[in-house]
Amino acid sequence: MAKKVENEMTWEHTHFSISVDILLNSVCEHIILTEEDKDFFVSLLEPKKIKRKELLVFEGEITQQQYYILKGCFRAYQIDKDGVERVSYLAIEGQWISGLHSFLSQNPSQIFVEALENSELLGISKINLELLYTTVPSFEKFFRLFYQNALLAAMERVSQSISLNAEQRYLNFIQTRPDLEQRIPQKHIASYLGITPEFLSMLRSRMVKRKA
Amino acid sequence: MAKKVENEMTWEHTHFSISVDILLNSVCEHIILTEEDKDFFVSLLEPKKIKRKELLVFEGEITQQQYYILKGCFRAYQIDKDGVERVSYLAIEGQWISGLHSFLSQNPSQIFVEALENSELLGISKINLELLYTTVPSFEKFFRLFYQNALLAAMERVSQSISLNAEQRYLNFIQTRPDLEQRIPQKHIASYLGITPEFLSMLRSRMVKRKA
DNA sequence: CGTCTATTTGAATGTACTCAAAAGCGGTGG
DNA sequence: CCACCGCTTTTGAGTACATTCAAATAGACG
Question: Are A155 and B155 an interchain contact pair (Cβ–Cβ within 8 Å)?
Answer without folding.
Answer: no
